[in-house]
Amino acid sequence: MRAYEIQLFKDNKWEFDSYINDCGTAMAEAERLLATNRHEGVRVIEEEYDPATNRSKCNILLSQMRKPQRYARGPVRGGTGRRKTSSKRAAPRRRRTGGRRPASGKTAARRRPAVSRRKEKAQMGTLSLLWVGIIIVISGIAALIGLQEVAEFL
Amino acid sequence: MTELLSDAQLEDIGEALPKGMERRLALRLLTQWRDLCAGQAFPAFSDINPADLDDMWPNCFVLDTEGFETDPVFRIVGDVIATKFDDSLIGKRVSFVPPGNLFYVATSYFSAVMQKEAPISRGGGFISEHGDRILYRSVLLPVSDDGISISGILGGANCRKMDD
After folding, report:
1. pTM score of the predicted model
2. Do B121 and A17 touch (CB under 8 A)?
3. Which value does ipTM take for this structure?
């Protein structure tokens, strides 16, 4: 007698989820569970029970863990390829990687969107030009005053 | 006695669903059950809303196991699945159903559900009392009112006649 047990990886251990007596259905269900990305891992165990000996043989047909979340994140620019990840999913990933330090000012600035960075650059350029203009005007005025003084002296 | 087969009755309900969507009733019901659990071991009967089960509900039945652990009682039988049996099964024991019937094969493993306290799905074939070969899929899902002990079973099943 054969049965297929679907197990889900939860809290660092495999827990049974359901029993299905048809291999194809069990595998399809396991694949579907993996595709939902709601479970850390899914596996299918084939259990063959022999009533004569009262023994059962187990065989792991499928054992797959969820793909790392970092692949789920799309590029910042463009935005269309970006996938939303819930905070529930993000939390365990941080734990697995040993925790992430809070972002410093530099890294936070680096993460700012490209559009705002371009705006900042443009503003900085305008300000620099303004300052150069002011300096030139002041220098000009000073030069004129200086020349007048020299003329009076002579 | 049992009028099991007519082409309309045997039409797999999943066939009408859009391509790419899970068509198997047993798996769709299992998914719904998992959603109803919401982190608990079992959902409560009050969590089950027939409207949420859409087109699955007519193929569902509910067994009461509280006080009837060895021979549950049919409490609800969906409209479509009810046509697989001549008499009304409401209030009848599981042992009342004779072999060669969808209800018989779909409820035959209720004790395994009680023992394992987990959903079990079975499918396969059986010979109806009219001698036809029938393919079926079924699922039994434990339900608990107190969240600890199983107080009932939500079942779902469908079948079709095998072509000769």
Report:
1. 0.65
2. no
3. 0.70
